[in-house]
Design brief:
Blueprint: H1 7-13, H2 16-21, E1 35-39, H3 45-52, E2 56-61, H4 64-73, E3 78-81, E4 93-99, H5 110-120, E5 121-132, H6 138-150, H7 164-173, E6 176-189, H8 195-203, H9 213-231, E7 232-233, E8 236-250
Parallel strand pairs: 1-2, 1-4, 2-3, 4-5
Antiparallel strand pairs: 5-8, 6-8, 7-8
Length: 253
């Protein structure tokens, strides 16, 4: 993954991630006796929601900081540290569920990840996921890219935001039959007047890693000024999210 999480800040100020993710749970079909893996479970909120629906669940995440919070909050659930690209299960899953994870995986490793997910599912098992799609947070990234360019700096984009045709075709190549797929805009409100800066601090730190503190603060201030007319409404910042939501089934071999 292309990020190291500030786990406590994530829990306190970015609860919208799992709140929006609750709706994705409804794409899971079949009875509640199924074994469901919550891949990229973070602090475990959606793992608990899956458990409340009656599923037998396992949460997997690559962040030890996030898993520490998950284990503290939900001591009766099982959590495992692992990476989406190469985690291994002792028992094949009926369902792999994943919310807001796949866009953190490098584009050149997406096929490897999908093939691993297929290997960890039973034949006919479901992959249900939502993640950032083409155009996600583009107004923010475009403004930052321009501000970097004005200073003779390169703004590196670390996210993978595919189009829906691109991604569903890749899934089919990796042994999945896509039964539902949608790409949609979801402007996402942040908690307070500093929401833009806090969002960048949490989700988009890498482009700023080698810059001086003065340069970083200057870019943030100018980004706020340029984006306020389009992304600040009613006392809140709205990040221009675009999401892909998919349900797919592992094809029997």
């Amino acid at each position: 993954m292309n990020i190291t999480w500030q786990a406590e800040n994530y829990k306190d100020n970015f609860s919208f991630v799992h709140q929006y993710g609750e709706d994705v749970l409804n794409l899971i079909t079949g009875d509640t006796k199924q074994f469901v893996v919550d891949l990229g479970c973070g602090n475990g909120v959606l793992t608990q929601k899956l458990s409340e629906r009656g599923f037998r669940v396992l949460g997997i995440d690559d962040s030890s900081e996030m898993l520490a919070i998950a284990r503290q909050q939900y001591p009766d659930l099982e959590f495992l540290q692992g990476n989406a690209v190469n985690f291994q299960l002792k028992e094949k899953a009926d369902v792999i569920f994943s919310n807001a994870v796949f866009h953190w995986i490098d584009g050149n490793r997406q096929e490897e990840m999908l093939r691993n997910l297929s290997c960890q599912l039973k034949p006919g098992g479901q992959l249900v996921c939502e993640f950032g799609g083409k155009g996600c947070a583009e107004q923010v990234h475009a403004a930052l890219e321009e501000l970097f360019r004005e200073r003779g700096l390169s703004y590196l984009r670390f996210f993978y935001f595919p189009g829906i045709g691109e991604y569903t075709s890749l899934m089919e190549k990796c042994g999945f039959k896509v039964t539902y797929a949608i790409l949609f805009d979801r402007p996402t409100p942040q908690k307070n007047e500093n929401g833009l800066e806090e969002w960048i601090r949490m989700f988009n730190k890498k482009p700023f890693e080698n810059l001086s503190e003065d340069t970083v603060n200057e870019i943030w201030a100018q980004a706020k000024q340029r984006l306020q007319p389009v992304l600040f409404h009613d006392g809140k910042w709205f990040i221009d999210y675009v999401r892909i939501r998919i349900r797919a089934v592992k094809e029997p071999r």
